[in-house]
Amino acid sequence: MDGLLGVDTLVAVAAVALVAPLVVGLLPRLPVPQVVLLLAGGMLIGPQVLDLSTPGEVQVLADVGLGFVFLLAGYEVDLRLFGQDAGRRAVVAWSASVLIAIGVVALLSGAGVVRAFVPVALGLTTTALGTLLPILRDNGLLRGRLGRYLLAAGGVGELFPVLAIALFLGTQNRFTALASLGAVAVLALLLGLARRAVRAGGRLASVITRGQDETAQITLRGTILLLVVLIAVTDRFHLDAVLGAFLAGVVLRRWVGTSSPALESKLDAVGYGFFIPVFFVYSGVALDLRSIAEAPLRVVLFFVLMLAVRGLPALVVYRGVLDRRERAQTVLVTATALPVLVALTEIGLRNGTMLPENAAALVGAGVLTVLVFPAVAVALGRPGRDVVPAAADPGGSRPPSAG
C-alpha cells in the first residue's frame, strides 16, 4: 500500500458513494445497478477525466473494501449446500467452464492476443457473488429452489477461482501459497475452539453477549479486527488476503451461531455503508480508459467469452432440476463477474505478465456483465412462491441463507 490517504480524494469518493444510490432511488426505472454507477463515478473523478483523485490516495480503504466484498460473500455461503445436489452441480458447471476456458485462451494465446494465460483463463470462470447479492436479494431471486442453486453456483464461481489464484498467482511460490491456505485452516480451527471456550467461559461469554448490541459492539469489532489483520499480514500478497477474507466469512458464519442475523446486518451496514462503495469507486478511478478506447473490440470479445465460458455450461448441468427460464437466469448470474477480475488484473499488471490493454478490457467486460446480465435475469421474472416438493427438489427444502 504505497499511497497515503488523501482527504480531498476521500471527499470525492464519499460523494460518489452517496450520489450512486440516490440516482438509483430517484430513477427506479434506470436499469443500472448501483455498482456500475460507483465505477462510472470513479472514472469521472479519476485522473483521466476530471483528475480529482488518484488511486493510491484511497488504496488502504479500498483494500479493506475488497476484503469486505469477499467476507460478506463467504458469510452468505452455507457449506451444507455443497453436500446437496446444488453444490455438486455447481462444482461440475465450474469444472466445465475451466476446461472450456483453457481451450479458448490457448487459441487466443496462439494468436498473440493473450500473454497472461492463467489469469485470463481464471477470469473467464469467475462469478461476482458479492456484487450480485444485493441485486438478487432486492429482486427476490434468492427464494426457494432457484435461490439454492444460484447461491451454490455463485459460491463456487467465487471461491474456486480465488483458491486457484492463491495457488498459482498470489505468492512467489506454491509452497508459500499452501502455507497461507494452511494458516487460514488453522485460524478456522482456532475460531472453532474459541467458540466452545466462550460458550463454556461463564463470565467471558456473558461479557461478549452483553457487548454485542451495546456501544462496545464486541462481535463486530472482532470481525473487523480479523479482516484487517488478514489484509495487513498478507499486504504484500494481495490476493491471499482476498482468499482469507472469503474463508473468514465462511468460518464466521459458523462461529457466531444464533447471533448470525444480528452480526450480518451490522456487517452489511459497515461494509455496504462505506468500505465496499470505496472499493468500487477506487476501481473506477484506477481503470485505464485509454487502453479501452484504443482496443474496444477486446472488451466485446471478453464480454462474449464470459457468457459462453462461464454461463453456457449451466444450460446442460442444471437440466432436469431447473426450468428453461431458471436455467437462463443461472447462465446470466454465473456469467456476471467483476471483483475477482479487478484483483486478477492488478496482480497481472504487478507481475508484468498481463498486457495493459487486456487488463483494462477484462475489467471493462466485467462492468458490462454487471450492467447487462443481472438486469436481464431480473427481467425474466422472479421464482414462484410455491414450495417445491422435496421429492422434486434434489437440493432439499431448506431455504437459502440469504433469502
Automatic annotation (TrEMBL):
Matching InterPro entries: Cation/H_exchanger_TM, Na+/solute_symporter_sf
Family annotation (Pfam families): Na_H_Exchanger
Domain Cation/H+ exchanger transmembrane positions: 16-375
Keyword set, alphabetical order: Antiport, Ion transport, Membrane, Transmembrane, Transmembrane helix, Transport
Membrane topology qualifier: Multi-pass membrane protein
Membrane-spanning segments: 6-28, 35-54, 60-79, 91-110, 116-136, 148-169, 175-194, 215-233, 239-257, 269-287, 299-318, 330-349, 361-380
Subcellular location: Membrane
Superkingdom, taxonomy of origin: Bacteria
Family statement: Belongs to the monovalent cation:proton antiporter 2 (CPA2) transporter (TC 2.A.37) family.
Entry protein name: Cation:proton antiporter
Organism: Geodermatophilus maliterrae
